[in-house]
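Our collaborator T.R. sent over the components below with a one-line note: 'Predict the complex.' Nothing else. No constraints on interfaces, no templates requested, no preferences about which chain binds where. So this is a plain run: every listed entity goes in together, and whatever single assembly comes back becomes the starting point for the next discussion.
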Amino acid sequence: MTRMDEAALRSLTPGVLAILVRRGADFAAAEDAVQEALLQAVRVWPAGPSPSSRPRPGGGDPLRDAKGWLVTVAWHRFLDATRADTARRRREDLVDEEPAPGPVPAVDDTLQLYFLCAHPSLTPASAVALTLRAVGGLTTRQIAQAYLVPEATMAQRISRAKRTVSDVRFDRPGDVSTVLRVLYLVFNEGYSGDVDLAAEAIRLTRQLAAAIDHPEVAGLLALMLLHHARRAARTAPDGSLVPLAEQDRRRWDTGAIAEGVEILQAALARDRLGEFQAQAAIAALHADAPTAEETDWVQIVEWYDELTRLTDSPVVRLNRAVAVGEAHGPRAGLAALAALDAASPSSGLRSSRGHPVPRHAAVAAYLHERDGDLATAARLYAEAAHQAPNLAERDHLTRQAARLNARRRR
Amino acid sequence: MAKYLMLKHYRGAPAPANDVPMDQWTPEEISAHVQYMNDFAARLEKTGEFVDGQALAPEGAWVRYDGEGRPPVTDGPFAETKDLVAGWMIIDVDNYERAVELAGELSAAPGAGGKPIHEWLELRPFLTAPPTITE
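Returned assembly:
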């Protein structure tokens, strides 16, 4: 199958899974059965739509009714597994006793799956893994590769997660903000492997936005699209990071930007502001500037003020100091940074666990460089490199320190 | 085949010949160094000898059990520790000679002035599973 076909196929996952659960299958077994049906579909389906595709066993032409085919195959898999199980009697009784499905509940099945997979009883890592498998339709191997852990480890993580949520009622609405946090994690901490996790996060958020009318879901989708649009410009051919101000803006994806801005504007018009909409608004202002110099930093500072009001995190206040420095000069930025440190040293310089807030030294270095104090800036860049959480940032910050030291030698 | 761990140290290894801190290099020299390391790993993947490579943050902590019902004791960052591992590469090669050859190549990564750093790398063989035929 081509990538497109596979994505289309995987988009059917939550619907198929929900039908099995409605028929009385327990979530964990149903999820396994759907995975097997997906794998079988990849094996037996023709590569693309073709009028000559032969009818397949278990429900006619799969291409004409892919969902029906998957439901039929997954249901048979589930029944086979149930019959093979030593606890067969008990399970079959359970299925028999299951009351006939009542009136269709108000909340969409797909939505219920999102809630279940992001249930607060799960750790973030487990919620991410379960969402990618049960909602995204990815295989355990793909998820394991993406997060650089052995497949057996990921399989355990997923099955433990399924056990954790096994007693959760499937017909109660959950908290959409927990779902958004999980999708944000998938987007922001996508690592490697043959699955593009950022694109997958966008697909899942899009699907969620179709299932629920919520301005913050739209806000997150807009945020993802606006950042994804910059992806090609974010790294140089040698793999090094290119900061926002130095990116070749002609390489930004204008289609993704236009879509992100449109979704964001519709969300903002509803007048129910949340942190994802505010973050997306900042990304949209960057996207809107033809050059870095033309960025509307004054408005960006205002959005950071909104964000501080919505979520008073040290990271937000740190980014606000950068914006203040751009809008009102480096001295104002350094003053904002100093105010941040003085106001609450525990949450300013240090996060709750006692670690330095990521990028604090890098922000201070940048503002001191803009202010003309190259010696302090070079020292702080070296310190920032020492604290960098990943190799790309470490290399970038070391290069900044080296650049200033070379200038000072001349 | 035999697996070897090539350990890179922040501290604790004998001083390299070209011992200039990285933030005193030129940006171009840093790029050349990073490129050399990436190319080295890519070449080993092609020859089928690469297993894993990871970098470690320079700060960590010592942790130990402190008795029933008590939280573990942490101590650190360990400023006084003599030896501090910076990262590793695991290779799977035919023999010791090949492992030494590769460690030598990695140690030749360019540093200040574009000249090899001559960095000392620690080379440690993995203990293996017992062989089936022993007599």
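Summary for T.R.: Residues 27-47 of chain B form the longest helix (21 residues).
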